[in-house]
């Protein structure tokens, strides 16, 4: 069925609600004996092997300095049941509180990074800063995932995706068509 849409002008600074690709993540970092967590939605997969993720972290954010100095972090994927924690972490600063203690989160030990994993999250990806050349101009880190930890169940976690304006979308119905793909595109 072909659908045609009537469109109207839309403010360009609001288009993120249509383009945000992946789930909200909690980024944990560690530097000079201090641990921190931030909520992040602005990131993109850049390559598969090595596994590269590009992410935007505004320069005044406490985590920006911690990741820049330490050269590492962990990207943790929370599920819907953690939405209050996700919002609370995003509305607070690690300069003033210990977010692990404040939100009752458990630190896990990474294999390749000092930054803690968040045990309550569905998945945790240990990352090293691969390229920092875009930090000064764009606050854009390029991270290499050096170790991935993923829960075996559920197969499809209920993740939350930020749509802007305080609105989230929850991952929903899944459809699968692997037989329609070329093997190298799966």
Automatic annotation (TrEMBL):
- On the tree of life, the source organism's domain of life is Bacteria
What SUPFAM superfamilies does this protein map onto? FMN-binding split barrel (SSF50475)
> Does the keyword Nucleotide-binding feature in the UniProt annotation?
no
| Pfam families, per database record | Flavin_Reduct
Keyword line? Flavoprotein
Q: Which residues form the Flavin reductase like domain?
A: 17-169
Task: Give cofactor(s), names only.
Answer: FMN
Q: Which InterPro entries match?
A: Flavin_Rdtase-like_dom, Flavoredoxin, Split_barrel_FMN-bd
Keyword Signal assigned: no
- What family name appears in the similarity comment? Belongs to the flavoredoxin family.
Can you name this protein?
Flavin reductase
Q: Which organism is it from?
A: Dyadobacter beijingensis
């Amino acid at each position: 069925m072909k659908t045609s849409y009537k469109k109207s002008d839309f403010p360009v600074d609001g288009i993120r609600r249509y383009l945000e690709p992946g789930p909200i993540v909690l980024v944990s970092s560690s530097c000079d004996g201090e641990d921190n967590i931030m909520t992040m939605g602005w990131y993109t997969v850049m390559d598969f092997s090595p596994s590269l993720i590009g992410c935007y972290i505004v320069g005044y954010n406490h985590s920006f300095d911690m990741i820049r100095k330490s050269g590492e972090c962990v990207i943790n994927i929370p599920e819907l049941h953690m939405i209050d924690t996700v919002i609370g972490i995003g509305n607070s600063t690690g300069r003033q509180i210990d977010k692990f203690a404040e939100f009752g989160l458990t630190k896990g030990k990474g294999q390749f990074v000092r930054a803690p994993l968040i045990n309550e999250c569905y998945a945790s990806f240990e990352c090293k800063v691969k390229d920092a050349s875009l930090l000064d101009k764009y606050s854009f880190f390029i991270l290499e995932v050096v170790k991935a930890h993923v829960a075996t169940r559920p197969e499809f976690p209920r993740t939350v995706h930020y749509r802007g304006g305080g609105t989230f979308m929850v991952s929903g119905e899944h459809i699968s068509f692997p037989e329609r793909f070329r093997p190298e595109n799966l």
